[in-house]
Amino acid sequence: MNENDEERLNDSYDELCSLIAGVNDAAFLKEFFGCLFTPAERKDFSERWLLVKEIDAGVTQREIAKKYNMSLCKITRGSKELRKENSAFRKMLDIAESKK
């Protein structure tokens, strides 16, 4: 992949994030994600969100791995991201909590 391709991909990613941020319709986003992602991709990012919520709730990594048949590597990555300063995962969990 050359530098132009990478720049176009980054621009496309930025555009998509901006568009999604402007949508306030969960049903439409679900439909859009259904078009954009394969069932396997949707399952993968849903699992990642699930494991972050489980870690935040105090469930151990081994318990999560056993309960959801996930790799410890994937769970460890989520755990590390959650512990980062200014974690986007933490911010999203806080947003989710405020909507309850």
TrEMBL record:
Stored SUPFAM superfamilies: TrpR-like (SSF48295)
Record keywords: Cytoplasm, DNA-binding, Repressor, Transcription, Transcription regulation
Record-linked Pfam families: Trp_repressor
Cellular compartments per GO CC: cytoplasm
GO molecular function, one term: DNA-binding transcription factor activity
Location(s) in or outside the cell: Cytoplasm
Family affiliation: Belongs to the TrpR family.
Identification of the protein by name: TrpR family transcriptional regulator, trp operon repressor
Organism of provenance: Treponema porcinum
